[in-house]
Amino acid sequence: MPHEDPFVLREGADGIGELCPACHKALAFGDMVIACPRCKTKHHEACWHERGCARLGCPHVAASVIERDRPRITDDDRAKEYIKPVPKWVPWTVGFLVFFLLIGVPVLRKYVFADPRPKLTVMIPSGTDEAVLNLVADRYAAFNTDIQVEVILGPPGDLYLQKLMIMIGARDAPDIFVLPYPEFANLAVQGAYHDLSEWVASNPESLRDLPQERLLRGQVQGVWYGVPHPGRPLYFGIYAASSMAERATELLDAIIAALPVDENVEDRFTPNQLPPTLYVVPGW
């Protein structure tokens, strides 16, 4: 680019007295002037920056004018230069991936990659002999490889009972579960449990050390529907609609045998203090 450097008119310099073609005033000693790089006509510096060369017929425009009139490019403008339209396949691909993750993966996990073996389940409140039950379940599964065995930890307290009632109402209850005596007896009256009379009558070794008073409470209306937890005021029972009642009885026998007996355990109610039915379980 031609130089447009300003300079001072010194005494005796060429151009003193010439008219600035922009303002038509004489150039004087000491003025800052710029000579047009094209036609060499001298202008006052301020006049030059106004438009460039003012000589008739000279097309030269000052660099400062070009820079001033150039559109300012902001960061947003620069960003827009790099923004390209999103290809049409991108939204479809994203949509497919979302669909696959939300629906496809669970379906594949449940129906394609799921273990086809039937599952035997035991449900207890969290904090209730989890280590022992998990050990027993693992040992039982090791000798019965044709099935799965799972210990489900339910929420503590009343939330456990609420969850169990929902599962029973939905016909999706675990094969084996525990309840305090009043709730156990109420469900037994309604037919929620599998009949254990034949197993109890066989006098299995696992039941021989249990306090007889508590063991007898597992008999409701003349039918053995449950057996007491050896060390807690709870009663084990097998779900009436269980499709694996025979296997569940075997696992229950192993669980009772593995739990330590506490003869000081007291149930909250005796049969004579049994409260009225609290729950109505549909389907029986």
* The CATH topology of the largest domain: D-Maltodextrin-Binding Protein, domain 2
CATH class of the largest domain: Alpha Beta
CATH superfamily descriptor of the largest domain: Periplasmic binding protein-like II
Instruction: Give a quick account of the main beta sheet: strands, pairing sense, barrel closure.
Output: 5 strands, mixed
Helical region count?
10
**Quaternary structure classification:** single chain
Extended strand count? 10
| Percentage beta strand | 5-15%
**Spatial extent as radius of gyration:** 47 Å
Task: Produce the secondary structure layout.
Layout: E1 7-8, E2 32-35, E3 42-44, H1 45-51, H2 63-69, H3 75-82, H4 89-112, E4 119-125, H5 130-143, E5 148-154, H6 158-169, E6 176-179, H7 181-189, H8 197-201, H9 212-216, E7 219-220, E8 223-224, E9 226-228, E10 235-238, H10 245-258
Parallel strand pairs: 4-5, 4-6
Antiparallel strand pairs: 1-2, 2-3, 6-10, 7-8, 9-10
Helix pairs in contact: 5-10
